[in-house]
Amino acid sequence: QGILYVVATPIGNLADITERARKVLSEVDLIAAEDTRQTRRLLTHYGISTKTIAYHDHNETRLAPRLLAALDQGHQIALVSDAGTPLISDPGLTLVAAARERGLTVIPVPGPSAVICALSAAGLPSDRFLFVGFPPRLSGQRERWLAELGSERGTLVLYESGHRVVETLQALARVMGETRRVVIARELTKRFETFLSGPASVLATRLATDPEQRLGEFVILVEGSRAQGEVDRGEQERVLRILCDTLP
Ligand code: SAM
Questions:
Q1: Which reactions appear under catalytic activity for this entry (predicted)?
Q2: What is the pTM (predicted TM-score) of this model?
């Protein structure tokens, strides 16, 4: 019986590939890649010449049965996405779920993922977090989506593109207010890696007025409502103390 490896690849810095990922990618029979040209560049960099096949959102349902048949015949296949960990806002669920259902062996080969990378260095609580992927593109839907997340107690982690990052920060300011800390992690592991933090509206203005800060890929992290609750309680206590001190 074959094996399906789910292999994480770098999110920017090519030195972030693991030794195990290189070994698996060079030894499998086939690499199912979200974008074969992008993966070919990566493989060439590591001196790997394994055959690739395109496996993406648009052919997932059509291609999954072919890959499952190859696995049934004993082939070893690696699944990779353009960057980071497959299935994390990336294709692969259809194949992995079907492979599991058939009782095939699915082996994760862990490595970079922007969500964990950002969380590890943002300085926001990381004991409890909710990863929610990309916000909806339409503004009404996006605000409703954010409103539903407003009571989440853990840190919220969102993915966003440079084209929409200002709009999303503005929506965050409108929906969640100004008291929560927000961190934007841009171009992680790359030359222009930047962490900016502050209230959503301040960050929105900063990015709106500085086009360079809108370039590249973004993770947005928002302090959860629990942490904010603690700030509020602190504020309540401060007000109470002032009242007590001033009362006769
Ligand atoms: N599977 C990937 C992972 O494990 O992180 C995510 C793929 S998703 C299609 C791409 C999004 O991830 C980008 O739009 C951005 O929000 C985030 N991302 C990926 N690489 C990043 C990086 N180097 N810096 C900041 N965000 C990144």
A1: cytidine(1402) in 16S rRNA + S-adenosyl-L-methionine = 2'-O-methylcytidine(1402) in 16S rRNA + S-adenosyl-L-homocysteine + H(+)
A2: 0.91
